[in-house]
Write a structure and sequence with these properties.
By secondary structure, the protein is mainly alpha-helical. The chain has helices spanning about 1-25, 30-45, 50-70, 90-95, 100-130, 130-135, 135-165, 175-210, 210-215, 220-235, 240-245, 270-315, 320-350, 355-375, 380-385, 385-395, 405-420; strands at about 245-250, 255-265. About 75% of the residues lie in helices and about 5% in strands.
Length: about 425
């Protein structure tokens, strides 16, 4: 019953998040689309222009923007060919203003998610650093998970929002800055997903084999396990150090620098066959499969154990240590809900199904933002599923919990005296 209530709370919260993101995107469509048309009119200030010319102009602007700003579903930034022309490396040439209404909606909602995520993960770190929490080996994994979520939010939505507001594509300034930001962003995201899978395996062993768990998982070993997870994630994403960088193209007899942060043509086989499979496996399929199997086993074992205790003890038995397992099941549920829409969307996008471009853009924006929620809302799940976490959070803010048992004892004794 406790597991079902936890899943229900997380599902309701995520449903409201999806509704909020979709409604925000849809309600701002008309207003920002009109602003987009005004920008097109400024770029093409003819006195008499028909609808076909406007549509072609909008298509041209949207194409240039998508190429200069980078698509939201890709981890690689592809800049407009006209941003760096004839070897011109000045800042003004590299920083084209994005006028499309779609990135504006995407970035402003992403900023809200970033603020909520940074605040929540920071509070999670403070709670996990409490003396009573640090002694528990599993809490060290939750601590590092919060740190990786902060890095993911900084290197993805926050970086993109700052690039939109400052008109500067930071990863397109130099080749090595592009490689550094790419490897850091991909490593943090991959490490976060893989560490969540590690926590799921750890909790499954703790529930199914408690004696083996105490021997295998200690505080020091969990720290080493986290470092190994980050190192493996870095090694899997290390090809970005030499497959991305300066991209040139022949313009007649001249060699023109297209971008500082592009996919090198000589590694086309890697980008076509190896990179998509590697990213899908390490950031999606493998963590998803591990979380699914271990979560089912953990939930089944918890229900079975509680039924056995109720029969043997003849009443309800509380298990304080199960709060950490509830925390895991909560964030696992969030991972499933936030990952599945973006995975289904990309499969549909690659298929032959025809979708209206406006609907496609709204779906792309919504699933991308929903994916960021996986790194931002774990704090809310911890608060809903763990009473111990809420108690430690009160200590962080210096709040003391009322001792209800003492109050009840005093009131009962007072009423007894009155009857006497």
């Amino acid at each position: 019953m406790f597991v079902l209530l936890t899943v229900r709370k997380v599902t309701v919260m995520l449903a409201w998040v999806v509704i909020f993101l979709a409604c925000t995107v849809l309600t701002t469509e008309e207003k920002l689309a009109e602003r987009h048309r005004k920008n097109v009119t400024k770029l093409f200030p003819q006195q008499h222009i028909n609808n076909n010319e406007i549509e072609s102009a909008e298509m041209m602007v949207s194409t240039n923007e998508s190429r200069s700003a980078g698509s939201t579903e890709a981890l690689w930034v592809t800049h407009n060919e006209t941003d760096i022309e004839d070897g011109d490396n000045n800042t003004e040439a590299r920083t084209s203003r994005k006028t499309s209404w779609r990135p504006a909606v995407y970035y402003h909602i992403a900023l809200i998610i970033v603020i909520v995520g940074l605040a929540g993960n920071t509070l999670t770190i403070l709670v996990m650093l409490q003396p009573s929490m640090k002694r528990v080996p599993t809490n060290m994994l939750f601590l590092f998970l919060a740190c990786l979520d902060i890095l993911t939010l900084v290197f993805y939505p926050l970086k993109e929002y700052l690039a939109f507001m400052t008109q500067i594509q930071f990863d397109g300034l130099t080749q090595w800055l592009c490689r550094t930001l790419t490897i850091l962003s991909r490593t943090s995201s991959t490490s976060s997903n893989n560490l969540l899978a590690v926590i799921s395996v750890e909790r499954c062993i703790a529930v199914c084999k408690p004696f083996v768990f105490k021997q295998w998982f200690t505080r020091q070993r969990n720290i080493i396990l986290t470092l190994i997870t980050v190192a493996v994630s870095f090694a899997l994403n290390s090809p970005a150090l030499f497959t991305t960088g300066d991209v040139y193209r022949m313009r007649g007899t001249r060699t023109v620098l297209i971008t500082h942060c592009g996919k090198k043509p000589e590694f086309s086989f890697h980008f076509t066959y190896i990179d998509p499979f590697l990213r899908a496996a390490t950031q999606g399929y493998i963590p998803f499969a591990i979380l699914l199997v271990t979560s089912i086993l953990t939930a089944y074992k918890i229900v079975q154990s509680k039924q056995f205790r109720l029969k043997s003890a003849g009443g309800s038995v509380t298990n304080r240590s199960s709060s950490r397992t509830a925390m895991l099941l909560g964030i696992s549920m969030m991972y499933f809900v936030t990952l599945m829409p973006i995975a289904v969307f990309y499969q549909v996008q690659r298929s032959d199904i025809t979708i209206d471009p406006t609907v496609l853009q709204v779906l792309r924006t919504t699933v991308r933002l929903l994916n960021f929620c996986n790194n931002a809302f774990n704090f809310a799940v911890y608060c809903m599923t763990s009473s111990n976490f809420r108690e430690q959070l009160r200590k962080v803010f210096g709040c003391k919990r009322r001792n209800t048992t003492v109050i009840q004892t005093v009131s009962s004794s007072a009423s007894t005296k009155e009857t006497d």
